[in-house]
Amino acid sequence: MFAAKAINGSENPGRIWAIIGMAFHSVGYGIFFINMSKKLAAGSWATILKFIGVTNILFIFLIATPLHDLGTISIVLTLVGLFTITVFVLKSKLHLLKFCCIICLLTFYGFFFLFGFGYLGLAVIMQKVYNASAILLVLGLEYFTKYEDFIQIKSGGQKI
Questions:
Q1: Residues paired with 5 in a beta bridge
Q2: Cα-flanking dihedrals φ and ψ of residue 153, to 5°?
Q3: pTM
Q4: Which one of 28, 95, 108, 151 has the lowest number of neighbouring Cβ atoms within 10 Å?
Q5: Could you tell me the mean pLDDT of each successive run of 10 residues in the chain, 160 residues long?
Q6: Cα(55)–Cα(26) distance, rounded to whole angstroms?
Q7: Which residues contact 64 (CB under 8 A, 6 or more apart)?
């Protein structure tokens, strides 16, 4: 999608749209992690999520450039961010989002398993499943959570 030439050798007319889409994707994920950091009462974890958000804005976009391999750092950052958020959601009363967080992480790990063991045909499908579950989770967390949902949770796992 990001190559200047298509597989058949002609000019790739979709390249500009893929790059624009990746720019929106990187900014969207960055803003999501920054907004989630504002919802957490635990200061150190909020700082980590804010760092992940700012860093992901750059690294996710690098996937659309010749620095693609460096951009894959964003996958690790996103996984750490989603795992952190999952821990806080599991300690909350947001039962549907608990289920969504676990499904999202399992599809992500399933993708890595399939990709790592060379099942590339299945990995491509699992990547789409992961992206769909991540988008739904991000929308759910963004629009159906608030600061009050996490205010009783300290970073040490104790409730206030």
A1: 11
A2: -105, 120
A3: 0.85
A4: 95
A5: 78 86 91 94 89 92 85 90 95 94 96 94 94 94 92 60
A6: 10
A7: 2, 18, 19, 22, 23, 71
At 132, give phi and psi (nearest 5°): -65, -45
Instruction: Report the C-alpha gap between 60 and 8 in whole angstroms.
Output: 27
In Å, the largest CA–CA distance within the chain is 62
Question: Which of 32, 28, 31 lies closest to 141, judged by CA?
Answer: 32
Contact 133, 109 (CB under 8 A): no
Termini Cα distance of the chain: 49
Q: What is the pLDDT of residue 15?
A: 84
DSSP 64: T
